[in-house]
Amino acid sequence: MEDYPKTIMEFEAQFNSEEACQEYLLRFRWPGGFICPHCQHKKAWKTSRDLFHCKNCDLETSVTAGTIFHGAKMPLQLWFRAMWHITNQKYGISALGLQRALGLGSYRTAWTWMHKLRRAMVRPGRDRLSGIVEVDETYIGGGKPGKRGRGSAGKALVIVIVQLDGTRTGRIRLQRVSDASGKSLEKAVQDTVASQSTIRTDGWLGYKRLDSIGYKHEIVREETDVGENLLPRCNTVASLLKRWLLGTHQGAVQISHLDYYLDEFTFRFNRRTSRSRGKLFFRLVQQALTIDPIPGKYLSS
């Protein structure tokens, strides 16, 4: 059963203690009761340090062990507030905004939390897109002199993949690729789109082998210039992505961290029709428990 607060007052009432936050995580991680992560035994007792002691193998573990909350020094209540703020802002929140909202003494802490939670926005094993899918690329990065179009220097190339739901734009996937070669584009498509789907692209040669790797390939226009006259839904998504990066984050996104922001934008876009922001909070908590710990040293700025 999906249980989540729908208003800030409900949130404050539901998560008014550290114990309440732990109990909420417990229902996600072990909905049928404790299961030892080492031996799969189902019986344990609670220690004075609030750990679960397995009766079979004597392993001591916690509800946050092996998740992005693993080893967290800050209270879970603060983490929950961070997730509520992030999911309840329609266009997201910057690390500086999160620092101010939570009263954190360190910008670095807010920045690290934001990136960890962005990784949790990608559900492991998520379904691939299917049916009719538009594919195109766009460049992300500030204006720099040099070559325009595919092969532009100093920018990141992002493949934009959009599933069509009738006449409406459905789910999307965004993935940074090293270049616009057939090898790079084909792998990105295979990672995100189910075989036998219909792929619509422009006439770029990098897509010419899609028919031979299990897709129905439709070339909807022969022009191949990146950045102008893109396929309509890809164009819309690319425009919204760039506007979001410039608006919420003032364009201050390093290319080395772009993947984290693509994850967040995808999470938000695919849930844009949700009537309850609380459900986004619910999904983020749920997925945060499926993500392995991410040491802060791997999130270098």
What does this structure look like?
The chain has 2 domains: 8-123 and 277-298, no CATH class; 132-270, Nucleotidyltransferase, domain 5 (2-Layer Sandwich). The longest helix is centred in the C-terminal third of the chain and has 16 residues, at 232-247. Strands 6-5-4-7-8 form a 5-stranded mixed β-sheet, sandwiched between helices. It has a 3-stranded antiparallel β-sheet with strand order 1-2-3, with no helix packed on it. Helices cover 35% and strands 16% of the residues. By secondary structure, it is of the alpha/beta class.
Task: Give me the secondary-structure topology.
Layout: H1 8-14, H2 18-29, E1 44-46, E2 52-54, E3 60-61, H3 76-88, H4 95-102, H5 107-120, E4 132-140, E5 156-165, E6 168-177, H6 182-192, E7 198-202, E8 216-221, H7 232-247, H8 258-270, H9 277-288
Helix pairs in contact: 3-9, 4-5, 5-8
CATH architecture of the largest domain: 2-Layer Sandwich
In CATH, what is the homologous superfamily of the largest domain?
Answer: Ribonuclease H-like superfamily/Ribonuclease H
Strand order of the largest sheet: 6-5-4-7-8
Major sheet details: 5 strands, mixed
Strand content: 15-25%
Alpha carbon gyration radius: 22 Å
Shape: globular
Helix share, percent:
25-40%
Return the structural class.
alpha/beta
Unreliable parts = none
Q: How many discrete structural domains?
A: 2
